[in-house]
Automatic annotation (TrEMBL):
InterPro entries: ArgE/DapE_CS, CNDP/DUG1, Cyt/Met_Dipeptidase, Peptidase_M20, Peptidase_M20_dimer. Its cofactor is Mn(2+). This is Peptidase M20 dimerisation domain-containing protein. GO terms for molecular function: metal ion binding; metallodipeptidase activity. Mn(2+) 1 binds at D167, E202, H481. The lineage of its organism: Eukaryota, Fungi, Fungi incertae sedis, Chytridiomycota, Chytridiomycota incertae sedis.
Length: 510
């Protein structure tokens, strides 16, 4: 059961947060007019079971399935097992693929299972593959959360707060509720459903691309007509969207080392080349304060903006205030909505993420670290190629380090890289999704690109040779990787209806 938070202090809110009960609220089958459409029956059923769906979301939020932490890997596996159990209970055919092993924090660990569910094999129906991930970003109370990140909490505004609520556990389990609603109502599923859920998306989707490519013509993927992913967000907070483009991402690690051990700055400061100072000197050359990447040649392959695309920016329901609310500050670089969106969608960006090996605890420590690893990423756009990005970055970083004249050693590695993705919005996959949005939310959706990266979209598109749709459930202010991650209750419940409506609409289109 959820605790409810009003506009009380963070301390009071923390006291209010409670663990969910082990048993969810019972399912309710309302009395329905037999003459109602399938859409209306499903919508009324979903509304009647709101509490059940929230209780089940609390259940999965309570599983800290952080793929990036070795200590949490058993929890990631446990979350995968939860999905297997639920899918089997629904009568789905379930297979589990084990992608192999991975070394993390000096330990060799099994990669989490890729959970594959099949519901329906009627050759007369379209077959839709849905993808999602059940791993989440790290979270801790001391990061700045007002409540326990692993306890779902509903506040006075109807926001369901907890790690994974919007990214991506809420959307993933919603596919299960769609199947269950059809069963309870005695409705035939309008399509065959293939479900592909992974546990490594937040850590580079290790093993997934290889599996999809190898099995593209195999039993699981061979009959897929279209793909749907619910792992993105509305452009703002009021109007639904369909996402047809994502930026790619190349993630770099820069290691600078020299001394054989950490040193005392009072004894060695000023007489040795310091790895941290060298790293800062190099990083200061990567990007300007106004967001321009300073690596020569990085913009050379950026696809030009078409006239039709340029005009589209004036029709979107978006304001700079949407960004201000999402970041809790007015620190935007650009002065207009168009400039901001183009910087997010149409041009590459470079972000510096952190330094491994540096002293970061409270208090003073006068240590010179012997080795530091700086981390940054580049978000790429069409027609940029990861191999060329990596070549340009490595050449530039090595050249800048050489200019310093340091006797330390620098090495740079691209940990993972994925290309940008753009889909055909005229495909029936998008036509059906647009109709579903109108049916549920009574408004036409905006068609948008996004600044984030989901490399598997391009893998699905290329390997299966089919259209891929991003069908968002959450809002722009959900804080997916941040403290206080949430999904609004109306988005969660409305999202369940949306996924169901989409499957029915896609069965109706040519």
């Amino acid at each position: 059961m959820l605790s409810f938070l009003s506009s009380c202090s963070p301390k009071q809110q923390r006291k209010a947060a409670t663990k969910p009960t082990t048993a969810p609220s019972p399912l309710i089958t309302p009395k329905l007019d037999p003459n109602m459409s399938a859409f209306d029956k499903i919508f009324e059923y979903v509304d009647a079971n709101e509490k059940y769906y929230i209780d089940r979301l609390a259940e999965v939020v309570a599983i800290p399935s952080v793929s990036a932490e070795a200590a949490r890997r058993p929890d990631v596996v446990r979350m995968g097992e939860w999905l297997v159990k639920e899918l089997k209970a629904l009568g789905a055919t379930v297979n589990v693929h084990h992608p192999g092993k991975q070394t993390i924090e000096g330990q060799q660990l099994d990669l989490p299972p890729i959970v594959l569910g099949t519901y329906g094999t009627d050759p007369a129906k379209k077959t839709i593959c849905v993808y999602g991930h059940y791993d989440v970003q790290p979270a801790a109370r001391e990061d700045g959360w007002d409540t326990d990140p692993w306890t779902l909490v509903e506040d006075a505004k109807g926001r369901l707060i907890g790690r994974g609520s919007t990214d991506d556990k809420g959307p993933v389990i919603s596919w299960l509720w769609v199947i269950a609603a059809h069963q309870k109502l005695g409705l035939d599923m309008p399509v065959n459903l293939k479900m592909c859920f992974e546990g490594m998306e937040e850590s580079g989707s290790e093993g997934l691309d290889e599996f999809i490519i190898a099995e593209a013509k195999g039993d699981f993927f061979k009959d897929v007509d279209a793909v749907c992913i619910s792992d993105s967000y509305w452009l703002g907070t009021k109007k639904p969207c369909l996402t047809y483009g994502l930026r790619g991402v190349s993630y770099f690690m820069v290691e600078v080392s020299g001394p054989g051990k950490d040193l005392h700055s009072g004894v060695f400061g000023g007489i040795v080349h310091e790895p941290m100072s060298d790293l800062f000197a190099v990083f200061s050359k990567l990007v300007s304060a106004d967001g321009k990447i300073l690596i020569p040649g990085i913009y050379d392959d950026v696809a030009p903006v078409t006239d039709a695309e340029d005009k589209m920016y004036g029709t979107l329901d978006f304001s700079l205030n949407d960004i201000h609310e999402a970041v809790d500050s007015k620190v935007t670089i650009h002065k207009t909505e168009k400039e901001a969106l183009m910087a997010r969608w149409r041009y590459p960006s470079l972000s510096i993420h952190g330094i491994e090996g540096a002293f970061s605890s409270p208090g003073s420590k006068t240590v010179i670290p012997a080795k530091v690893i700086g981390k940054f990423s580049i978000r790429s756009v069409p027609n940029m190629e990861p191999a060329k990005i990596s070549e340009l970055v490595k050449t530039f970083v090595n050249a800048e380090f050489k200019k310093i004249g340091s006797k330390n050693t620098l090495s740079i590695d691209c940990g993972h890289a994925g290309k940008a993705w753009v889909a055909d919005t005229n495909h029936y996959n998008y036509v059906a999704a647009e109709k579903a949005v109108e049916r549920v939310f009574k408004v036409k959706p905006d068609f948008i690109r996004e600044g984030g990266s989901i490399p598997v979209t391009l893998t699905f598109q290329d390997a299966l040779q089919t259209n891929v749709l991003l069908l968002p459930m959450g809002r722009s202010d959900d804080g997916a990787h941040s403290t206080g991650e949430k999904i609004d209750k109306e988005n969660y419940i409305g999202g369940i209806k949306l996924l169901a409506a989409y499957l029915h609409e896609i069965a109706l289109v040519a």
